[in-house]
Amino acid sequence: MTNFNRSRKITIIGGRGRMGQFFTQQLSTAGHQVSTLGNQDWDRASQLLGEAELVIVSVPIERTVAVIERAAKYLLPTTALADITSIKAQPVQAMLANHAGAVMGLHPMFGPSVKSFAGQKVVICSGRNDEIFQWLLDFIADRGGELISCTPEEHDRIMVTIQATRHFSRFCCGAFLSAENTDIDRSLLMSTPSYRQEIEIVNRLFAQNPALCVDIMLATEERCEAIARLAQTYSRLAELILQKDRSALIREFEIAQSFLTQENLASTKQKEYAIAATQL
Amino acid sequence: MTNFNRSRKITIIGGRGRMGQFFTQQLSTAGHQVSTLGNQDWDRASQLLGEAELVIVSVPIERTVAVIERAAKYLLPTTALADITSIKAQPVQAMLANHAGAVMGLHPMFGPSVKSFAGQKVVICSGRNDEIFQWLLDFIADRGGELISCTPEEHDRIMVTIQATRHFSRFCCGAFLSAENTDIDRSLLMSTPSYRQEIEIVNRLFAQNPALCVDIMLATEERCEAIARLAQTYSRLAELILQKDRSALIREFEIAQSFLTQENLASTKQKEYAIAATQL
């Protein structure tokens, strides 16, 4: 092995969780010595953390900052510390405040049941001494992962849209189908391509752990407020539906249409949409 | 040409609309003599309708029943009459009440920008003398279309789920992205696969005509009421989010999860979901 991809000692805190298992599997298959630190293993923390070149924090959102604070005491200044939580401002700040060495926030934009990094996005938020993480970033990129850099603040702002409000929308769709006692098999038999895709997306959400899904929505005040605004959009437009206010609805439709069209015109993905638009 | 696929005289009322153009193109390419009857052509109705073997009504939902009543006067008892509206109970009832010959309700489950029937679903609702339509059904099936039979009432009930509430949800998503002035390009750069799919679905909706989209939601009282219940689901769950009621949210999640899992277990599509679940 060259220095670039020599075997490294890595400890994953929360490595028995599903995403922890994914990272463990990816890194150990490549020849690294990956250890796991779970809830019960803190009596071995000085060994598990004090000898690691890289420590990855992979615990539920609401425990991330506390775990960073607890783990930092055991780290050498030469240890690289990263987290893979769905929010980035708080964890990166906590890592910088509690650890003097290299720090980086990561957010894998996929679920733990993927087979590899191939075709998947990973957002990276620079903390301190990025160059120490270069081998890890190369490792992900070499396996087909796409790395996207941004600040922790931009990450968190965009995740409100990508993750929190969409999670909530999928959650509501599932709750509605359940409350309506919908015959999903029969509906799929008659479905449009879009409906089938949406049902699949909703099913993917409900294949996850309930507490983890709920915590993704509750993670920040910003997320909760955006979810409330989304629900207000539904109430406002549903009121127009009940009033049969056709012209107000058409006006609302045209405003959104104009916004989305401008977005599309600016987008490099324009062609892709044009193709997708052939199927309702 | 055999009798089965000999050239036939067909008139499409509303044939200049996008879906009318699709049917015109499909049928005339196959050698049929397809005429169009638009708003301005009623002075030629006795010729356009009185000589047709098949008349297809392809006009906006809210004009369908009136157009059926107006057209029926010109039809021979040997003319087959079909409509392709997104609701089926009212149009089929109107066709049966106003025309003594063969009647069938059709609902193509796709947008007008598809290239052919290949891989697309068409719901068919039997009216009277189904055998007269056999050549048309064979025509669709031969080109790869999938025919699904049901009663007009079942169709309308299931379309509340497939079409009306999902249309509304996509509409609200677009309105929300617009109101939030979301940087969609930047969000797509960081997106999960699910988010990208959802943005594409929303863009497909907003590529359509605003009035047609609004009328699909307003088409029946049943649709409006279901949309109101969907908005109430959003309000109820958003209230729990604002209260940070984690355990109530987890309970709600588990109820929907249990419903969707039962649905999935019953489904022949189970394997397909298991595969789709590998990507959040």
Question: Mind explaining what this structure looks like?
Answer:
The structure is a homodimer of 280-residue chains. The first copy, chain A, has twelve helices and seven strands. Chain A has helices spanning 18-29, 45-50, 61-72, 89-98, 134-142, 152-179, 184-189, 193-206, 210-218, 221-242, 246-266, 270-276, and strands spanning 9-13, 33-37, 54-57, 80-83, 103-108, 121-128, 146-149. Chain A folds into two domains: 9-150, NAD(P)-binding Rossmann-like Domain (Rossmann fold, 3-Layer(aba) Sandwich), CATH 3.40.50; 154-244, 6-phosphogluconate dehydrogenase C-terminal fold, CATH 1.10.3660. Mean pLDDT of chain A is 92; it is low at 268-280. A seven-stranded mixed beta sheet of chain A has the order 2-1-3-4-5-6-7, sandwiched between helices. In chain A, helix 3 links the parallel strand 3 (54-57) and strand 4 (80-83). Helix content of chain A is 56%, strand content 13%. Chain A is α/β, with parallel strands linked by helices and 280 residues long. The first copy, chain A, is elongated and about 65 Å long. The interface between A and B is large, with 106 and 105 residues.
CATH hierarchy class name of the largest domain in chain A: Alpha Beta
**Low-confidence runs of at least 5 consecutive residues of chain A:** 268-280
What is the structural class of chain A?
alpha/beta
Which geometry of chain A do the CA atoms define?
Answer: elongated
Q: Write out the strand line-up for the largest beta sheet of chain A, numbering strands in chain order.
A: 2-1-3-4-5-6-7
Question: Number of helical runs of chain A?
Answer: 12
Strand percentage of chain A lies at 5-15%
Q: Main beta sheet of chain A: strand number and arrangement?
A: 7 strands, mixed
